[in-house]
Amino acid sequence: MADELITRAGGVCEFCGDAEALAAHEVPPAGPVLLCALCREERPAAADHWRCLEGAAWSAEPVVQFAVWRKLGTLDAPWAVEAREGMVLSTEAEAWAGAAPVAGLEHRDSNGALLAQGDTVVLIKDLPVKGAGFTAKRGTAVRGISLVADNAGHIEGRVEGQRIVILTEFVKKKS
């Protein structure tokens, strides 16, 4: 599989084209993509680094399209929103993008309440937001959450205009 991945990628990162520190990165449920350390987020990247996704969005590989679509969804920049909305996904990548959460996967808050797409939750602890330079304060309401399809311990939501990933153990469902 590793040789196939390197051949498919042409020996470079499938996001930015870098040839250094390449490794397979699993993107459930689609499969692996070949990424450099920066794109795997093992090292801090400058904000403008992610502009590489605008070009990678045109990849002919469905798994790369899906990985780019997913990553663009985590970036809170007007260009990223525009790039994501303008993407033309293959049928396969579109199916992954619209896929329901993994069967049997349940997202539960700190009290064990079942969370659903679109719920409102409240932070139960101050949370430093990596890379954004602010702390999400305890008591902050996060409206319209998204469930991370492949990880029951993660949800996504907007805090102070930033789309962030939040651990479910630090939220409680608002009734």
TrEMBL record:
Question: What name does this protein carry?
Answer: PhnA domain-containing protein
Q: Which InterPro entries match?
A: PhnaA_N_proteobac, YjdM_C
Q: Which domain of life is it from?
A: Bacteria
Residues annotated as domain PhnA protein N-terminal proteobacterial = 4-44
Q: Which organism is it from?
A: Gemmobacter fulvus
